[in-house]
Amino acid sequence: MYSVVWLNTDGIPVLVSVVDKFE
Hints:
Layout: E1 2-9, E2 12-19
Antiparallel strand pairs: 1-2
């Protein structure tokens, strides 16, 4: 599975892409 998560760091949005190894 491919997941995209937005993390807010110090007011700066950071795009984090996570690929599930168990896809």
